[in-house]
Design goal:
Order of helices and strands: HEHHHEHEEEHHEHEHEEH
Number of helices: 10
Radius of gyration: 20 Å
Low-confidence stretches: 1-6, 52-60
Number of strands: 9
Mean pLDDT: 89
Distance between the termini: 54 Å
Length: 299
């Protein structure tokens, strides 16, 4: 039986409420050297739901754990069937105004790094460079036996060929690219092996219950250690993989500024939490700083 990961926390009612004052964001960025830490809330305006908050996917969906995935062929069949369908939608997502604003800040030399908890690749698609994907990326697949890494689009093609009549209707798509399907809908789905060694394929992402590679964590810690401030965008900071960097910054006396509509687990370490929608907030700050943000609708 699948165990639900520990993915919740109790907000501290003694903290001040959020604000709509964007001054601290503009002040932080104007000095340069800012490190961005982004979460699922940054991608909701691209049509990818977040885990928590109103309508968050955790209300109906338990993410796949590493233990389940490696523990049996049935769990892997369920995952790949759901993920294959989800990829058709997930892979078509495009950067929103928030991603484009972050990329603009980077182009103008205001950022020293971007760390994302997201696996959607939208920061890079918007033009951000040297993004640290804390939890990996869904656009890659890794073999658990030989370590070969291959493009997700190639696996999608192979899965299409192996399952030509697979076209169920999903109840929803989740932040990890997993579609909501019933057991009956995934029955009979054919999983394909590694083309190099015949081993088990896994998306190149960190599942719940899996450890973020130590080298990746060290890189993030180095970025945070050199930051003038840490700007958290759209993360509840519920899981330690992101919260540890907020704690690191706070312990070093580095200001932490959070933009998130709901309270976060890191609010006690922040100088402020801003409750505005991310796209609106970041483009407003860009305008105030005189920084143009790419408009994909422009001729």
């Amino acid at each position: 039986m699948r165990m639900r990961p520990t993915l919740s926390w109790t907000p501290d009612t003694g903290l001040p409420p959020g604000t709509t004052d964007l001054g601290p964001v503009a002040d932080a960025l104007s000095t340069g050297g800012v490190v961005v830490l982004s979460g699922a809330g940054l991608s909701t305006e691209s049509g990818i739901p977040d885990y928590r908050g109103e309508g968050g996917s955790l209300s109906r969906h338990t993410p796949m754990t590493y233990q389940d995935f490696t523990g049996g062929a049935q769990a892997r069949r369920r995952y790949w069937a759901r993920s294959h369908l989800g990829w058709r939608t997930f892979g078509r997502a495009r950067p929103n105004a928030g991603h484009r604003a972050v990329a603009a800040f980077g182009r103008h030399g205001l950022l020293s790094g971007v760390i994302t908890q997201n696996v959607d690749g939208l920061h890079q698609a918007a033009g951000s460079e040297d993004v640290v994907e804390l939890h990996g990326g869904l656009d890659r697949v890794v073999c658990l036996s030989c370590g070969d890494v291959s493009p997700r689009r190639e696996l999608a093609r192979r899965l299409e060929e192996a399952n030509p009549n697979f076209a169920p209707v999903a109840a929803g798509i989740n932040p990890d690219g997993d579609a909501d399907l019933t057991d009956a809908q995934v029955a009979g789905f054919h999983v394909v092996p590694c083309t190099v060694c015949g081993g088990i394929l896994k998306p190149d992402v960190v599942f719940f219950g899996e450890t973020v590679p130590a080298q990746r964590v060290a890189r993030c810690r180095a970025l945070v250690a050199g930051a003038t401030s840490l700007l958290v965008l759209g993360s509840s900071l519920t899981v330690m993989s992101g919260l540890r960097f907020v704690r690191q910054a706070a312990q070093a006396g580095t200001p932490v500024v959070i933009i998130n509509r709901d309270p976060t687990r890191g609010d006690q370490h922040a100088v402020t939490r801003i409750t505005l929608p991310l796209g609106t907030a970041l483009t407003t700050v860009a305008e105030d700083l005189g920084i143009p943000v790419d408009d994909p609708t422009a001729a």
